[in-house]
């Protein structure tokens, strides 16, 4: 007589029946949805508490414990396709720490110890988000369905739009968070710490003549807000597409229409480019599939946007931003410094970013309380690509790009809405990496897009499986 029990690889194994007093076979431990769903659904709360991106390292610990418990119970631990490339990237990040004490030409001299805090912070985020990726991919449809995960990402786009409106109409809104209150006064006043624990609606900048608020809530920085806008907007469309409720579809359309206001008022040219990349990529995918109606939808949306720019002050805002490229000179200066630095340590980089001596016009110009953007710029702070190249050399850059590039190639035949939008998110991140950095929340949403593509592929290859 035999008993059939679940095998670790998803197959069925046959074992001889044991004595009547044998201990029963334990079922594999289920993965609860709350570590991931709770972070996403309640992110505005974490932001208000002062946890923000810190919530990801905090929840990575229980995620890791739960994954190990499931593995110990006999359930296989699945790893995403191309994961070896990502592990190689993590190795490159660790190895590059060996060059942390180097002072490339034109940068502020510091010891390795002075730079270690930023390195530990960055490495902890990379490790935490790796756990998040594996956890999201190992969740079953019963534990956290793909549709629910898409809904959560769509919800975060709504949060992004709401934060953008708050930044535009109440740009000086800020408050001291509970976590901030718990920190020593000399620590919580530091700029880096403030960016982590101090909630504020917008960054106030002078880009087009006079100080104007640029949306940041709840993502900390205007550039991060713009990056996340591009990574999340497609998921709202997928979530609305999948429901039969007309009210939800209408709310999604209204949200997309309203999002134009903070998107334009943010003065964020990278965001504008990113939106165009996403729309054109999705349109191209659907045209290749023979769904030519998408061309009409894109043209209709473009006509509506042009009309809105002509009929409202938003058009003047766009013209003013395009006529005032104040950041162009700084970005060119930092790109030159990154390329020069790469030439000095092409294989492993320097382990982290560096601050320049002075500014682009003179080494005597520096950051001060009256002019925080006058000098001491961060080499590698103007885009993920430049940071990878400068901080982790060719080894880290190639491994990072290869992981996401492999995902695009591996899942290229996924024609479901999830497959198209997930690929679009990764494509947009490739374009944005020349002006946006990915840590921390943009990389979260890149990983979740990857996890959805991966789970779609797993489900499609199961007997009777289908994608949403």
TrEMBL record:
Give the transmembrane ranges.
46-68, 77-99, 119-137, 149-170, 225-243, 250-265, 271-288, 293-314, 389-409, 442-458
Q: Which UniProt keywords apply?
A: Membrane, Transmembrane, Transmembrane helix
Region span, Disordered = 1-23
Report what the protein is called: O-antigen ligase
Q: Which organism is it from?
A: Actinoplanes nipponensis
């Amino acid at each position: 007589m035999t008993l059939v029990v679940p095998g670790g690889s998803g197959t069925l194994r046959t074992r001889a029946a044991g004595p009547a007093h044998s201990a029963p076979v334990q079922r594999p431990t289920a993965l609860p949805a709350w570590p991931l769903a709770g972070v996403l659904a309640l992110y505005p709360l974490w932001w208000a508490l002062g946890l923000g991106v810190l919530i990801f390292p905090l929840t990575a610990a229980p995620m890791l414990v739960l994954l190990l418990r499931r593995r110990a119970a006999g359930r296989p631990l699945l790893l995403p396709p191309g994961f070896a490339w990502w592990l190689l990237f993590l190795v490159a990040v660790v190895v590059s720490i060996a060059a942390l004490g180097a002072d490339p030409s034109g940068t502020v001299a510091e010891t390795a110890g002075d730079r270690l805090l930023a390195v530990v912070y960055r490495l902890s985020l990379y490790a935490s988000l790796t756990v998040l990726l594996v956890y999201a991919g190992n969740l079953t449809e019963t534990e956290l369905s793909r549709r629910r995960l898409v809904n959560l990402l769509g919800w975060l786009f709504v949060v992004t739009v709401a934060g953008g409106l708050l930044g535009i109409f109440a740009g000086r809104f800020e408050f001291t968070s509970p976590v901030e209150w718990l920190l020593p006064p000399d620590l919580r006043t530091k700029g880096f710490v403030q960016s982590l624990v101090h909630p504020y609606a917008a960054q106030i900048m002078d880009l087009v003549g006079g100080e104007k608020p640029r949306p940041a809530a709840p993502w900390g920085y205007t550039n991060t807000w713009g990056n996340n806008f591009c990574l999340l907007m497609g998921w709202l469309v997928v979530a609305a597409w999948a429901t039969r409720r007309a009210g939800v579809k209408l709310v999604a359309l209204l949200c997309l229409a309203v999002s134009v206001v903070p998107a334009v008022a943010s003065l964020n040219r990278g965001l504008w480019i990113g939106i165009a990349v996403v729309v054109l990529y999705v349109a191209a995918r659907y045209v290749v599939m023979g769904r030519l109606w998408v061309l009409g939808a894109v043209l209709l949306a473009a006509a509506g946007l042009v009309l809105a720019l002509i009929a409202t002050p938003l058009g003047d805002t766009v013209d003013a931003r395009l006529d005032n490229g104040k950041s162009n000179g700084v970005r060119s200066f930092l790109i030159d410094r990154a390329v020069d630095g790469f030439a000095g340590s092409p294989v492993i980089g320097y382990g982290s970013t560096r601050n320049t001596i002075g500014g682009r016009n003179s080494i005597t110009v520096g950051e001060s309380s009256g002019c925080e953007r006058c000098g001491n710029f961060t080499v590698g702070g103007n885009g993920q690509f430049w940071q990878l190249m400068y901080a982790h050399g060719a080894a880290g850059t190639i491994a990072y790009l290869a992981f996401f590039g492999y995902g695009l190639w591996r899942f290229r035949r996924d024609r479901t809405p999830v497959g198209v939008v997930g690929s679009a998110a990764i494509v947009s991140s490739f374009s944005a990496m020349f002006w946006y950095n990915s840590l921390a929340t943009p990389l979260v949403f890149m990983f979740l897009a990857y996890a959805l593509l991966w789970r779609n592929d797993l489900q499609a290859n199961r007997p009777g499986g289908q994608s949403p």
